[in-house]
Amino acid sequence: MNELKWWQKTNVYQVYPKSFLDTTGSGTGDIKGITAKLDYLKTLGVGAVWLTPVYPSPMVDNGYDIADFTAIDPSYGTMEDMENLIAEGKRRGIRMVMDLVYNHSSDKHPWFIDSATSRDSEHADWYIWRDAKPDGSAPTNWRSIFGGSAWTWCEARQQYYLHTFAAAQPDLNWENPAVRQALYDAANFWLDKGVGGFRIDAIVYIKKPEVFVDGEPDSDDGMVNIHSMIANTPGILDFLYEFKEQVFAGHDIFTVAEANGVEPHELDKWVGEKGAFDMLFEFSHMNLEFPNGELWSHATGYTPEIIPELKKVLSASQHATADNGWYPAFFENHDQMRCVEHYFPAEADKKLAAKAMAAVLMTLRGTPFIYQGQELGLGNTAWENIEDYNDISSHGQYELALAEGKSPAEAMTIVHRYSRDNARTPMQWTRGKNAGFSAGVPWLPVHEDYACQCVESEALAEDSVLSWYRQLSALRQSGEAAGVLQQGDYTELLADNPAIMAFRRRFGCRLVYTLVNFSGQRQTYELPELEEARLLSGSISGSQQGSLRPYEAVIYIKETGERL
Ligand code: NOJ
């Protein structure tokens, strides 16, 4: 293998700025708050920070509705604060990674405001406009990802515009070269500021089909999820290669694209030297509870059968990226529930569950992405009323569940599990007021039990989730296992075991083994090749070969004597 690049050897940490640290008492986090915590991030082996959008935004979708692609929202600070963050990060070997949200803009972006004024305006063709059906209804029966029609009527133009997400997020028309150029210019603006990479949002939707047709309804509302109608439309790669050439190529940065639905066999076109990006976030391991599409009300919830599936899809992703591109390992982000709830039964010991997921995350082949609070083992939240939720998709999916005949209580149970607010509660720093997040009134409630689960408490406890992350990060980045964990190949072990996830990493004469028990029962296993191996780390003290206690994770190392 060629020499690894800097971003293949480091850990990436995802910051949700609104919930990270508030330095002004406004109740929402800010850029100065991120700068203040760079030294903390260093203790987690972090070399890059992915910031979810900090651009000016009406915040209908918390920053994913952007009104200016090359400025900073005043609630987060100033451009000078951003430049300072980039510089302070660089001093510590931490690069900033910006979120490029290029499928859509805010409806308050000057481009859209102009586009919506008339069919002859300067930006008339910058968005996706279509005439109504003869009866005046929307051009197609597509449902937006947040619920409700994907089309909104515009009086001035007497036309509908398309929005894959909220009505406040009109889709940009990538067929128009002027649109593409404006977007590339904005990304180059951030490269000139010295950022270390980009996470590219919702990229699978940028290319629309030539003809728009109704789809087979997938719910009682008579609509079909837009994802199944427009994702990965042929021709998309032409746009993406141009994007790479005009922006990313030749820079010492990384790109990771959010690409729900790209199949492993297509990967070589999407990632790697010849592909459009360095890495792809694919969601096969996040969508296990949604075998029939992504409606929350149709999800299966947790069942133990999820674990064999999880093993299967993770292995498939490891194999798919063995020769093509590089794997971005992640189990959480700002759109997902907390992983301690995701892959474990409700009664599971959350601390052990968090450590188990950390062991997998930090020893798979790829770059680990840690989402803020994951390193503390934070769990989901469950507020009583739908009005308590800020997340726009929680509201849309709640309404849809009611329309399907679910009771309000049933609809709330669904929201409790899948709401994106689960991951967006304020970061827990101290045992003090509001967990040290804000001196004001936090925009979302802080978890009640923050006194035990906060950086201040966990940093002091040797057996905390935070200490385990720090230990695993040290294993990955220095010492005898580092070479294997960074470069070694991957082989699944105990593939038929329904409760234990086990895999071997190998590099030169050295082998590293990870074994995790996802069940609440003690599990025994037979793995003769482990006999001469030595325990490197265990999530509970007193590990014994051949058996794993409930939710236990262990990591072994072994020398083979021969180069394999
Ligand atoms: C994916 C982002 O991760 C999510 O938070 C956002 O709502 C949508 N894309 C729309 O931009």
TrEMBL record:
SUPFAM superfamilies: (Trans)glycosidases, Glycosyl hydrolase domain. One of its GO terms (biological process) is oligosaccharide catabolic process. Residues 14-424 form the Glycosyl hydrolase family 13 catalytic domain. InterPro entries: GH, GH13_cat_dom, Glyco_hydro_b, O16G_dom_2. Gene3D superfamilies: Glycosidases (3.20.20.80), Golgi alpha-mannosidase II (2.60.40.1180), Oligo-1,6-glucosidase, Domain 2 (3.90.400.10). Pfam families: Alpha-amylase. SMART domains: Aamy. One of its GO terms (molecular function) is alpha-amylase activity. Keywords: Glycosidase, Hydrolase. Belongs to the glycosyl hydrolase 13 family. NCBIfam families: PRK10933.1. This is Alpha-glucosidase. It comes from Selenomonas ruminantium. The lineage of its organism: Bacteria, Bacillati, Bacillota, Negativicutes, Selenomonadales.
